[in-house]
What we know:
Layout: E1 3-7, H1 13-20, E2 24-30, H2 33-42, E3 47-50, E4 67-70, H3 77-80, H4 91-103, E5 107-113, H5 123-134, E6 137-145, E7 156-164, H6 186-190, H7 214-219, H8 235-242, E8 268-269, E9 286-287, H9 297-303, H10 316-325, H11 329-343
Parallel strand pairs: 1-2, 1-4, 2-3, 4-5, 8-9
Antiparallel strand pairs: 5-7, 6-7
Helix pairs in contact: 1-11
Amino acid sequence: MLSVSDFFCGCGGLSQGFREAGFSIKTGIDFNKSFLETYAHNFPEARVLNLDLGDNKFIDEISYSDVVIGGPPCQGFSLTGPRNIDDPRNELYLSIFKTLKKIKPKAFLVENVRGLMTMWGGQVFQAIIKKFESAGYNVNFQLMNSADYGIPQVRHRVFIVGIKKELLKKYVFPKKDFKKEDYISCEEAIGNVPSLENELKLSDLSYEIKPITEYQKYVMDSNILYNHIATAHKDFVKKVISLVPEGGNHKDLPKGVGESRKFNEAWTRYHSKKPSKTIDTGHRNHFHYKWNRVPTIRENARLQSFKDSFRFLGTRTSQNAQVGNAVPPLLAFKIAKELIKLIQ
């Protein structure tokens, strides 16, 4: 079985998809201990490393795996410019490159925000591609919208996949599964989850809910609904939310209402017949399409395509960040299925 090391693993969205595609998860690495608590719970087979990947000492802890995956932050690029791609502020991104040079895996995958492709007129992105090619890989990339692949969420991310040149192959990304008019909606994903209108918490106990849609059949692999706890909003917040129409935002509020938040995503209510907006890390800007509250951790996890058996640990703030930062497992699965066919 082909092995995987997951850098900047977070809670494990990429790892979950790769495991379901038939890979063995060997290592998960992250700097955030609370994220690793969730990762260790869901991937007991993996070696979990709490490492600062910006510190060159990390390389001593890295052993061979067939594939290296990860989503490194690239905060240095906007400041350093295209000619300084090796700037120390980019050490997090360079940790992937250094690992490729050391262990020479069969393949790698890197995920990042789509803004990386246009930074400095695209020069930074081209420099990254050339850097990976110089490590001995045939590289391909694609901007992907999760909703095109059966995830009930509009989320644009760029994926870079490299295949070792000795294998004489180049990765081809999976074809889109859905057209815009057929996107899986919020209601199809979370419409059968208890509303919590009269209670803030549903205990982690067996519950009698049947899947109504094909997507619900996919995610409902457990009869225990973990992490389904409603936020205790103040009455005036719930009043403002109630004034936002389905699919609307702060622009639809009466004059003088909700003016403390007027940026683009403020007071956004999901639409039951459409995918969600990109799941954020818990800034409380998005609201349930029907109930006057933010989605629960479990609801957001479903919108990210995590199955119900995947449990999130740590504080609510940490759990929101874990879900919001993750790669949708179903998208990772579809990318990984094409990869395993190519290199197995």
